[in-house]
TrEMBL record:
This is Uncharacterized protein. The keyword Signal applies. Keywords: Signal. The lineage of its organism: Eukaryota, Sar, Stramenopiles, Ochrophyta, Bacillariophyta. It comes from Phaeodactylum tricornutum (strain CCAP 1055/1). Residues 1-19 form the signal peptide. Residues 40-61 are annotated as: Disordered. It comes from the Eukaryota.
Length: 269
């Protein structure tokens, strides 16, 4: 994994005042437009989330993705609900430090900027061009390693311990991580989420290719828009080159569509 030379220094944990838990249909997958796609056969409503992990629960076993079986589907659904929550107002338009913490919270990750890399450190998450894929993986794949199929990523790329330490348990079984996006411009995507973990991404952060690269979009695994923001303090954003490289690794792919669309609309104003 590649870590930025100087990670942004952020507060320990963000917990929005509007944080709430919601019951999720055990057999439903939440799409980016709010529709549901039935994945299982159970109609049982899940119990309200608790602060304890429900490892190996029957709900988790019912919710599977036939194409990417490493996806923690229940957890991904709940991440999408949190993204919808922070996208409603101005939560993605404030100071970058606050915005990044909200994105971490939505993704089910703790803000552990002072932890040791590999021991739950998330200071690199959404702070550089590459660690911008929020991936929800089932527990039995969290120790998967890169066997060489993911190009430009270190062999091994052991993330399991960090995933377990940094993941917020209340979103459901499995874990979350900000995985490397390199390779996502291919079809099918050849990145860490899809190859190493055999999982879909819950969302990807893409910086918009406007003049200053000062806006971003959050898109789902199909490239559909989940949210967008324009942080208020551009001097605290990740370096310009990181933002430019972030767009470059998605350019021409489905993940660039919404960023390109927003850039065109701004240019036309």
């Amino acid at each position: 994994m590649r870590f930025p030379v100087a990670a942004l220094s952020l507060a320990a944990t963000f917990t929005p005042s509007l944080a709430r838990s919601s019951a999720v249909n055990a057999s439903a997958f939440v799409s980016s437009n709010g529709d549901t796609q039935i994945l299982g056969t159970s109609s049982k409503q899940d119990a309200p989330f608790s602060s304890t992990s429900r490892k190996g629960s029957s709900v988790d076993s019912l919710m599977t993705d036939p194409i990417y079986p490493g996806t923690a589907v229940e957890r991904l659904n709940n991440v999408r609900l949190r993204v919808a929550e922070i996208s409603k107002g101005n939560d993605l338009n404030g100071p970058w430090e606050d915005v990044r913490r909200r994105i971490l919270w939505a993704g089910g990750l703790r803000d552990l900027s002072n932890a040791i890399p590999g021991k739950g450190y998330t200071g690199h998450s959404f702070s550089d061009y590459n660690h911008v894929d929020l991936t929800c993986m089932v527990e039995n794949v969290s120790d998967n390693e890169n066997d060489g199929r993911v190009k430009r990523i270190a062999l091994g790329n052991q993330l399991g311990e960090g995933i377990r330490l940094a993941s917020l348990p209340e979103l459901g079984p499995g874990g979350s991580w900000s995985t490397c996006a390199i390779g996502c411009n291919k079809e099918p995507p050849q990145d860490v989420a899809h190859l190493q973990f055999r999982a879909r991404i819950a969302f990807k952060l893409v910086w918009v290719p406007n003049e200053n690269f000062d806006s971003f979009v959050l898109v789902d695994d199909d490239g559909k828009l989940l949210g967008k923001g324009k942080p208020s303090n551009t001097d605290e954003l990740p370096p310009m080159r990181e933002r430019q490289l972030n767009y470059r690794i998605v350019e021409g792919s489905k993940y660039a569509f919404e960023a390109d669309k927003l850039a065109r609309s701004v240019a036309a104003e």
